[in-house]
Design a protein that fits this description.
Layout: H1 3-20, E1 24-29, H2 37-52, E2 56-61, H3 64-73, E3 80-81, E4 84-85, H4 89-113, E5 118-122, E6 129-133, H5 137-140, E7 144-149, H6 152-155, E8 161-165, E9 167-169, E10 175-177, H7 180-191, E11 195-200, E12 215-217, H8 218-226, H9 234-246, E13 251-256, H10 262-267, E14 275-278
Parallel strand pairs: 1-2, 1-11, 2-8, 5-8, 11-13, 12-14
Antiparallel strand pairs: 3-4, 6-7, 9-10, 13-14
Helix pairs in contact: 2-4, 3-4, 7-9, 8-9
Length: 279
């Protein structure tokens, strides 16, 4: 790249760095971005850079494919209902091992290789999250939802990047598997985050012709769910965005985690690469 072009790229990022300096960004990390080695390192670089320029990223990660692979190795059959994993006690044990014991530590280590310190957490650490059984627990087993969040656990980690696994216990000590998108939305709400960013395996929210929609208001997003433009697995992601907006998060984004450096392209460029859902 021509040096002058490089300077223009850096200057394009400047107003966004200024605008979001000292702001909290909750990032849900999942999908193919967690499985491809090059994408893993690109994500860790992005997070480190955001921290270096004064932003405060908080990572909530999933791990569905890794959990399925571990269950297969253990000879435990995987069953899904309504897009959620049916979780008995044996499955929950594997889920916790993979999310908390393996994936979480890998993300922390990757961020460290790019010069920033991270701390791995689950909902149990410091009672960061209290879970409760979902109303449809008779169908799903140990699949829970977030009853409450203690944001002081995160705010106490000044200077560190929190990396949060989506498991938590209820008041009796029973551990639950919780959807990572839902956890990210609840964490963003509790922290009063500037942004909630969901990394996905699609380009973002699309119209009926398959074209990317770069921006939607909450009302427009609700209308597109109602008229069938937004369908399938995108509906719960958009509903997470809408819930976050209703509870005080300023902006939400659905972006393609398969694109290297997707976070930087969405946050620090004029065009972005995904869909922003705004109040």
């Amino acid at each position: 790249m021509n040096p002058v072009d490089t300077a223009h790229v850096l200057l394009e990022a400047l107003p966004y760095i200024r605008r979001f300096s000292d702001k909290l960004l909750v990032i849900k990390y999942g999908g193919n971005a967690m499985e491809d080695d090059a994408l893993k390192h690109a994500f860790a670089e992005d997070v480190a850079l955001l921290k270096f320029v004064g932003m405060h990223p908080v990572i909530v990660h999933g791990g569905g494919p890794q959990i399925s692979a571990a269950l297969e190795r253990a000879g435990i059959e995987t069953e899904f209902r309504g897009g959620r994993r049916v979780t008995d006690a044996a499955t929950m044990s594997i889920v916790e091992q993979v999310l908390v014991g393996t994936i979480n530590k890998e993300i922390v280590a990757l961020i460290a290789t790019h010069g920033r310190k991270a701390v791995g957490l689950s909902g149990k650490d410091g009672s960061l999250m209290i879970a409760r059984r979902r109303e449809d627990a008779h169908e799903l087993g140990l699949v829970g939802e977030v009853a409450s969040v203690n944001p002081s656990v995160i705010t106490a980690l000044d200077g560190f990047i929190p990396v949060i696994a989506p498991t938590a216990a209820d008041e009796t000590g029973q551990t639950y598997n919780i959807n990572a998108d839902d956890v990210a939305a609840k964490i963003a709400e509790a922290l009063g985050a500037e942004k909630l960013i969901l990394l996905t395996d699609v380009v973002g929210i699309q119209d009926t012709a398959g074209e990317l929609i770069h921006g939607l208001t909450a009302a427009q997003a609700e209308a597109r769910i109602a008229d069938g433009t937004i369908t399938g697995g995108m509906i719960p992601k958009v509903e997470c965005c809408l819930e976050a907006l209703r509870t005080g998060v300023h902006q939400t984004h659905v972006i393609d985690g398969r694109v290297p450096h997707a976070l930087l392209l969405e946050l620090l460029t004029d065009s972005g690469i995904g869909t922003e859902v705004m109040p």
